[in-house]
Specification:
CATH architecture of the largest domain: 3-Layer(bba) Sandwich
Bound molecules: flavin-adenine dinucleotide
Number of helices: 10
Number of strands: 22
Strand content: 15-25%
Number of domains: 2
Strand order of the largest sheet: 7-6-15-16-17-14-18
CATH topology of the largest domain: FAD/NAD(P)-binding domain
Shape: elongated
Helix content: 25-40%
CATH superfamily of the largest domain: FAD/NAD(P)-binding domain
Radius of gyration: 22 Å
Structural class: alpha+beta
Largest sheet: 7 strands, mixed
Length: 430
């Protein structure tokens, strides 16, 4: 049986991007919206673990930065090393003159989402959960009907597609989603595993506030300290590594034994369980969750479409706006994806409320917003491809190659460590 509701703005998807959009609209004093989500609750899987300085500043504008900072680890640096020394580094503390947040906040995406949802609830807005959008139908009065699997129908004027990389909304309005320059990520770095694990010893010799990458001939292994969970006192680490094509296909559900094997082969020596290379062997004692994925980049051909597309009367138009992963995806290098989505959402809240307050809702502010966010997405895709290229080049050209030694020497220069931190922080694009 269908039930019909009405709202001015419908946000589809309650991931970090949809939640940020909702909070930003409220912060602008706009309340006539609904936020819907297909799942009933999220599991332990937690993809993003980094919140950069400019994103924290944006979150501060909607009063969410401090509660997140209270729960996370203030990451001071990011380093990529081989098994002997460091050759790519970022020093986030060098951002101190420019921001209140001179660090990269290390916090699981699930906790970030919990904090944003709790704030939304405190402001009186609940997410409509277990409601999956399956269709859009435009009406003569200029509104659009959003159709749900449950039979529910919601009429609205603005649909915000915050429904992730496989966006139903993007498909329903036929927007293409392709790699902007057609250059795929290095095949060796293409298939990846991520997992949150606990080690057999709590006194492991890795720094507790640094993201560490270890490379060795076309291989990369990442270790990131995460905050202790509320339920237990165990230290949790995010590990991530590429699986070269020659090592076969990725298992759908990587086991602890599988993770340990790659850790011993390509991870930091101090974390190895192999006594022949580590005099104090330790091992993964628990896998909280693990996932596999392939890295690729894509951007939506348009972030904004009107329905019907050819109508000139602004009072009879409906807008569909894509944000977050629905609009762009890229390799996880530098931990930037969720950051881009949160800033899409917060900026959209500001732009959409300015648009709605303007006479006839037609002041060009939405077009300007989407063109700025599209440029930001393209530059982030370029940055992540560059990072992947450097990591791939370091692995492939070791020892004999001038560029290998060139990159190693550059990493010793403090100015460059600060420059890498600045680029990742997003502060240049406030
Ligand atoms: C393995 C991995 C590691 C990552 N690590 C990092 C990192 O360290 N740092 C970082 O910044 N980013 C990282 N990212 C990227 C980050 O996870 C995403 O950019 C972020 O989740 C995007 O948020 P979103 O809200 O746009 O989309 P999502 O998080 O995908 O949320 C979309 C929501 O929409 C809902 N939905 C989907 N379809 C429908 C529908 N039809 N109807 C109703 N609801 C629907 C979904 O259930 C979901 O809740 C990583 C990504 C991956 C895959």
């Amino acid at each position: 049986m269908s039930t019909s509701e009405q709202t001015h703005v419908l946000i589809v998807g309650a991931g970090p991007t949809g939640l940020s959009t909702a909070l930003s609209l409220l912060n602008q004093g706009f309340h006539d919206f609904l936020i819907v989500e297909e799942t009933s609750s999220k599991g332990p899987a937690s993809r993003a673990i980094t919140i950069h300085a400019a994103t924290l500043e944006a979150l501060d504008s909607i009063h969410c930065a401090d509660p997140l900072v209270d729960l996370g680890i203030k990451g001071e640096g990011m380093e990529v090393s081989d098994r002997s020394s460091t050759f790519l580094a970022a020093t986030f503390s060098s951002l101190a003159p420019y921001t209140r947040f001179p660090f990269v906040l290390l916090l699981s995406q699930s906790t970030t989402e919990e904090v944003l949802e709790a704030r939304l609830l405190k402001l009186g807005v609940s997410i409509l959960k277990s409601e999956k959008v399956v269709g859009l139908k435009s009406k003569d009065d200029g509104s659009v009907q959003v159709l749900f699997e449950s039979g529910k129908v919601i009429s609205t004027r603005y649909v915000v597609g915050a429904d992730g990389a496989r966006s139903t909304i993007r498909h329903l309005v036929n927007i293409g989603f392709t790699d902007p320059d057609g250059m795929p990520v290095d095949e060796q770095l293409n298939q990846m595993i991520l997992a949150d694990v606990v080690f057999s010893s709590d006194s492991i010799v890795l720094p507790k506030n640094t993201v560490q990458g270890t490379t060795s001939a076309g291989r990369v292994f990442l270790t990131v300290p995460l905050p202790k969970s509320a339920e237990s006192d165990e230290s949790v680490y995010r590990i991530g590594f590429n699986v070269p094509i020659s090592s076969g296909p990725l298992p759908s559900s990587p086991s602890t034994v599988y993770l340990q094997q790659f850790l011993n082969d390509q991870g930091p020596v101090q974390l190895s369980s192999d006594p022949s290379i580590n005099p104090n062997p330790i091992y993964i004692s628990k896998t909280i969750w693990a996932t596999r994925f392939r890295t690729h980049a894509a951007i939506a051909d348009k972030f904004l479409v009107h329905i019907p597309p050819d109508i000139s009367d602004s009072t009879r138009r409906t807008a569909v706006i894509l944000v977050g992963d629905a609009a762009h995806i890229h390799a996880p290098a530098g931990g930037l994806g969720m950051n881009l989505g949160i800033r899409d959402g917060i900026d959209l809240g500001v732009a959409l409320s300015a648009h709605l307050k303007s006479p006839n809702e037609d002041n060009g502010v939405l077009e300007e917003y989407t063109s700025i966010r599209r440029r930001r997405a393209l530059s982030t895709i370029r940055l992540t491809k560059r990072i992947m290229y450097v990591i791939g080049a370091l692995g492939a050209t070791r020892f004999l190659n001038i560029s290998y030694w060139g990159i190693r020497l550059l990493a010793l220069i403090p100015f460059l460590r600060r420059l890498v931190a600045w680029n990742l922080s997003g502060l240049g694009n406030r």
